[in-house]
Amino acid sequence: MSRRRLTALLAEAEELPPSQAQVTAFRKAVGHAAAAGMTDLLIDARLGLVDAMIAADARDVSEVNDALTAFAQTVALHVADPGAFDEDQQDRLWWQFGVLGLVMTGLPDYSPATVRRLLDDMERHCRPDRDDRYMICSLRVMLAEATGDTELGDRSLAELRHLQAPDYTCPACMHMMQVRYLERTGRDEEAIAAAEPLLAGLLPCLTDDQPHRTLALLTLPYLRTGRLEEARDAYRMAVRHKLPQADLARLLHFCVVTGNLEQALTLFKRNLEMLENAPLTEHDMDLAASAALMCRAMVEAGRGEEVLIWPANPELGETEDEEWTYRELLEEFRKDALEFAERLDRSTGSTLAGDRVRAVIAAGPSVAHLPLSPLAAHRPSVPPAGAQGRAAAPAGGSGPSAPDEQALRRAYEEAVAHARRGAALSEEGRFDAAIPEFIEAVARFTALGNRRLATYARVDLATAYLSAGRMLDAAEVAEEALPDVPEDRQREYTGLQCRWVLVRAYPALGQHEDALKMVAEMRRLQSEGAPEPVRLPRLDREEAQILSDLDRDEEASALLESAADGYAALGDVPAQLSCLRRAALTAVWSDRPERAADLIGRARAVAGGLPAGDPHAAEQRAFTDFDTARVLSAVGRLEEGLQSAERASAALRELGLPAMATRAATLTGELLGALGRLEEAAGVLRRALAEPAADEEHRNEQESAARLLAEVLRDLGRPEEAARVENAFAMSE
Asked: Which of 390-394, 434-438, 529-533 shows the lowest mean pLDDT across its residues?
């Protein structure tokens, strides 16, 4: 087979989705490359084969053995000629080693001695000019966790703290392995401290699994160390994401031991497919143990005879439904978890797994009850739902007594009064003060059994949370309200506003795709009814922001154009101008310079028509000049961009916006430098730094200006002066 045909064959295999067909395609490519003696393509084919086996989710021991055999053959090529592997191929080899090592440590079919031999063998391939030891040490930490060898774990952990995560790994997820080891070895305080860089976003996550997986991991350490608010918030953030077995197990455990059995049951039912089969891995075992704990709690709550219908997987349509009581499921999950734990313990020669499973199943409450939201924590004192019908009948008649009717009427009046006070405070922009009023209204209407009014109050509460910047609370309350929105209100304020809250809140919680689905729902509802005219351009603008966050800038730019046209039709010139400016910038980011220049030209025309002497109009013109400079400089029109930047800087300073004025001055300095006018650039930047910092934002902008000035001075051959600028700025921090 020719090199050209073999290269095409490899490309075809790469394009296939993860499947057995892809594995077969790579096997074919391996055979042809070996027969042709093309070592470079044989390396690519063997690496592709292992990737395909891993992508097919190898969990059964026979599948893992196949992947290990294919990996060993790739390693043999590396032993024969290490120089034949380029850097990318080296990275792929080590990434595959890491994945397979992690899989092996969670299966009872591979003894610790077998895993150690693999680690020792791979250690011999570490190159001093690479960071391959990071993977070796990480896997030794995981092996130590599985075997209880804290000496090995602590030694490897100490070495890891001096190593950098390599580019072929996910730094955040690899660091989480260290947090998990500390938690598993009973060092909760150390685990919480080690997790700080993950929660602060200081370590990049390439898989979008962080920080929610770390938050799931920390729920129980937070609880055990008395950090109840942190435990509650970690749960609330983690549960919003699709989680693997180990994290789901922790959240189930957390719900049960904090007195939130209903939330545990909801979580359990939502993830039944994960529990269909007997455990294949250690993580499956942990999930079965937590499921057994939940079923035990159901039995102890007197609900052991409630029935659950299986199967959970809708694809198993031909399988007959089975009915299981929670009492029966308790025994099944207990048996599954303990049998797998026994296999693990036989492999490691310890009782670690069995002890852990038994401790989980027998876990008692950590607190009497930890409410998982501000609304759940509120319990008003009102007549219970149905009180009117259950009131004692007066002598000689039937029906409620007068005092009961009066109490019920007062309770409704008080609930309505709280809702009205919340609405009034929201109108005044006092959202933090409105929130407790709406909480009281929701709780009272709920206790009175009026779901319709409780739903309306929930939507108002969700809106207040959104306006106060409490995105998690806003999303939770809106999600609770949405299923109860009456059909006749779906296309009106209640239904659309409830969804609008979720459109705004979801991106802040990392749920961009969920936000896009909610946008699609709103558009469908609007197409079936009579939407508010302003809502359509607002929706376009919000969807554009979501798409921009997802780096889908071309789509975002088109939506911003549409929003600009919508606001123009409504006569809202500031909103039209804002959308045109953003559309131009997103056109730049999507590599469409001509479209960007056209859009910013339209924005300048709109800004030019704003009334003279109006401070708000002057601000709009200044921001337009600044964005014009950004766009024109990006498309190579430096002189025009410079003129716009200079105008923006002067106008923003005159308007009393020092941070933005300094940003515009920094852009002016960049453009002067790009045009070779270094002395002028230095002068502009010095003037920007001469002003006292007005606030933290202004200070941050001055820091950027100082860094640029130091670069300009070095380009001018004045390194001592550049160092003085840097030192002076550092001293003033």
From this structure: 390-394
Residue reference for tokens 């920007």: 688
d(CA 59, CA 63): 7
Which among 313, 218, 300, 225 has a CA at the least distance from the CA of 256?
300
> CA of 175: how far to CAs of 93, 164, 167, in Å?
20, 10, 13
Rounded Cα–Cα distance for residues 40 and 244 (Å): 37
Q: Evaluate whether 290 touches 254 at the Cβ level (below 8 Å).
A: no
Contact 533, 562 (CB under 8 A): no
Contact 497, 489 (CB under 8 A): no
Phi, psi of 537 (to 5 degrees): -65, -35
Mark 59-72 as b/e (b = at least 16 C-beta within 10 Å): eebebbebbbebbe
**Tens digit of pLDDT for each residue in 305-330?**
999 987 655 555 555 568 899 999 99
* Nearest to 586, CA basis, from 637, 636, 541, 523: 541
CB 560 within 8 A of CB 580: yes
310 - beta bridge partners?
A: 322
The pLDDT of residue 69 is above 80 = yes
To 10 degrees, the CA torsion angle through 30, 33, 38, 40?
Answer: -30
CB 440 within 8 A of CB 458: no
CB neighbour list of residue 729: distance below 8 Å, 6 or more residues apart: 689, 702, 703, 706
Is 386's pLDDT higher than 80? no
The pair of structure tokens assigned to 693 is 């910092």
| CA-based nearest residue to 355, from 277, 289, 295 | 289
Is there a contact between 84 and 93 (Cβ–Cβ < 8 Å)?
no
Q: Which of 174, 210, 175 is nearest to 193 (CA)?
A: 175
Torsion sign over Cα 297, 253, 508, 421: positive
If you average pLDDT over residues 261-284, what whole number do you get?
Answer: 92
Query: Using an 8 Å Cβ cutoff, are 599 and 588 in contact?
Result: no
Residue 310's φ and ψ, nearest 5 degrees, are -110, 165
SS3 395: coil
Give per-residue pLDDT as tens, 613-630. Answer: 787 899 999 999 999 999
| Spatial CB neighbours of 69, under 8 Å, sequence gap ≥ 6 | none
132 close to 126: Cβ distance less than 8 angstroms: yes
358-375 pLDDT, tens digit per residue, is 999 999 999 989 999 888
3-state helix, strand, coil in the chain (%, to 5): 75, 0, 25
